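Hi V.,

You were right to ask for the full record rather than a summary. Here it is.
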Amino acid sequence: MKILVTGGAGYIGGHVVLRFKKENAFTVIYDNLSTGVKEAVLYGKTIIGDLNDEAALSKLFLEYKFDAVFHLAASVSVPESFENPLKYYNQNLVNTIKLLSECVKHNTRHFIFSSTAAVYSDKTGKPVSENSPLDPQSPYGYSKMTAEKIIEDFSKAYGINFVILRYFNVAGADSKMRIGQFSDSSHLIKKACQTALGLYKKMSVYGTDYKTFDGTAIRDYIHVEDIAQAHILALKYLEAQKKSGILNVGYGSGYSVKQIIDAVKKVSKIDFEVENRKRRKGDAQFLIADNRLIKNLLRWQPKYDNIEDVVRTAWRWEKNLYQNNKFKKTVA
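Predicted structure:
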């Protein structure tokens, strides 16, 4: 089987690609390295290119005749999506259409799409199922929701089978410390670990007046290796069942921002200053997955459903980066 992974040099992409090594699948990574890094790719053939280059994309499909596409390339920052919505609609919508068009032209029938819990309404106060109301609060979430609808339309019209994976909050690193989150980001666990290392003077908490038990937002945090495994199972499902579906990828349990910071302090054994700030636009109050469908359809069984296990791998990874001088100490 020949597989294309867009964004395969990114945080999640690198872990997905590494998992394909166990499957002995011929894998091509297509990435412009805008946020991804070459060091994240430990398997497969890497081609540096951009999805908006239609000629290069068509040549790629013509040469390799892919059986399946994993579309992970995207812009993913909620705050940035308010500042530059054009970037998000180009990257997450226009480029998805270009990729799907190549799948149609070259008869690639399996399409796995990286989506997000940001498509859901956060007002229910209950775990969200795949049938819960959609009400994205940011251009990022809206771009992903619309891309999902486009994929469904392509499936109906052209016979492409798809699995859309709605990620909740991804964290952690490869258990063998081969790869992790190389690029800097606003992810809470990564930022807390960096603060514990002294890369930041203090940790910012955005919003302490939410209607939650401690006033901070609650999320479902999932280990990146469990996310990677879900991708493998999604492809096997498409091959066996020839049916499409939308699936939540989360643990079904939630932790507040304060609880995550406490977990990082406990694992790192380092206290650090925390600063309370006002809410950020587009941040959800409460998002936890109802994950019964993915467990039933894919027989997905997460390995790291424990917040301290997730934090522990993230902490080890960030400490290794710091000790190897991947990041300079800052006073930000």
